[in-house]
Amino acid sequence: MPLRRVGRPGLLGTVARTAVVAGTASATASAVQRHQQGRAEHQHEAQQQAAQAQAAQAQAAQGAPQQQAATTSGGADLLDQLERLGQLRASGVLDDAEFAQAKARLLA
Description:
The chain is mainly alpha-helical. It contains three helices and no strands. The chain has helices at about 10-70, 75-90, 95-105. α2 (about 75-90) packs antiparallel against α3. The chain is rod-shaped. InterPro entries: SHOCT. This is SHOCT domain-containing protein. Pfam families: SHOCT (PF09851).
C-alpha cells in the first residue's frame, strides 16, 4: 500500500493546482473577450443601421423642401419651412452644406 502524504501538497500537487488556476484564468479571459467582441459587433451593426436611417431621412428631407418650395407662396409657410430645416440641422439629419443648399432653394 502506497503511503499518502498528509499536509501541504508536494511539487506535483502544486504544479497541478497552478495548471488548473492558469487554465481557468485563460478560459475566463477568452470568454470575456468573446463577449466583448460580440457586443462591439452588435454596436457596430446598430450604428450602421442608424447611419442608413439618417441617410434615408436626409434624402427625403432634401426632396421635401424642393417640392414644398414650388407649391408654397406665403410668408408664413416659408418661415415654417425654414424652421423645419433648422430642426433637421439641429438633430443632425442635415449637415451645414445641405442646410445652406435647402435654405437657398427656399429663399430663391
